[in-house]
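dumping this here before i forget
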Amino acid sequence: MFKLRNSSSPATGEDPEGSDILNYFESYLAVASTVPSMLCLVANFLLVNRVAVHIRVLASLTVILAIFMVITALVKVDTSSWTRGFFAVTIVCMVILSGASTVFSSSIYGMTGSFPMRNSQALISGGAMGGTVSAVASLVDLAASSDVRNSALAFFLTATVFLVLCMGLYLLLSRLEYARYYMRPVLAAHVFSGEEELPQDSLSAPSVASRFIDSHTPPLRPILKKTASLGFCVTYVFFITSLIYPAICTNIESLNKGSGSLWTTKFFIPLTTFLLYNFADLCGRQLTAWIQVPGPNSKALPGFVLLRTCLIPLFVLCNYQPRVHLKTVVFQSDVYPALLSSLLGLSNGYLSTLALLYGPKIVPRELAEATGVVMSFYVCLGLTLGSACSTLLVHLI
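structure:
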């Protein structure tokens, strides 16, 4: 944000277009990240049987690494004289980064659909671990750093190092006998049963899947039909989550903000919103390694998912600021937003992970990768709808 301010312009003659960029930067960024994600998910689904998964993974990682190197190089560049150009570069980088990240994540998740459930669970938990580490790093940076440029440089350099490490580890994956066994080509007549404890029900019979195994495009209709209930659960979980987090959460202020304490001002939102949510999300995802109830065909799963709707008014009744239409703050304690953020993260992690784990396991193994990509589409759909509706919600409070 600080690099989008034209420091060379006089304060009295501020460029209206520059102000628009600053005021709505997050909105532009959201559009630049969500729209390419949806398009790339569709493209990735069409490429499942056309381009090998390792090519898609390595190509997307290479693109992500290149973009991060460009962004890292721009951290120390003075952009005050070309803010519009820098804004355009930022948006283009976000579009490419979002698309490549989507291809990478959906390809990896689709690939692990052929692995035992514990491997898919570990992959999903890893995403939450990344969020938790980022939240902790942000808190440390907030407490220790005084130069925003050095902080940004440190974050981007760290991300670049981890991307290189990720590429190296993926290249080592094919050397593991365990991984090669589950990544082997699938015979048309073989139906993967997944975890033994899960009741497997192929689309109708092995022959149904075998009709499509040689097709360049996976059969979308039977996958959608088979995963309809789980897809709804995934979409609605992430819809509610992105409706509340971060749009509502980050505007809830401490009731003791006037005390001037660092814990109620500088660290309140990073602690109660980012750290607690991400840690609870990690705990919820990790719980699925030991507890997997309700099952994939249970009506209780959609019920618990719908129950999360109650979190919306609960967050609104906290000390959200500014308030224009709803003046009353019901929860007169800073404990409530902390508890609600934890509940939001825990339920998001547990319920979404269950649905994502079940998806590729209720179809034949030869359709597991394509089903994984479809489940990723449900995630993206929920996030997109929630982000769009959150803009409306904040104007109603």
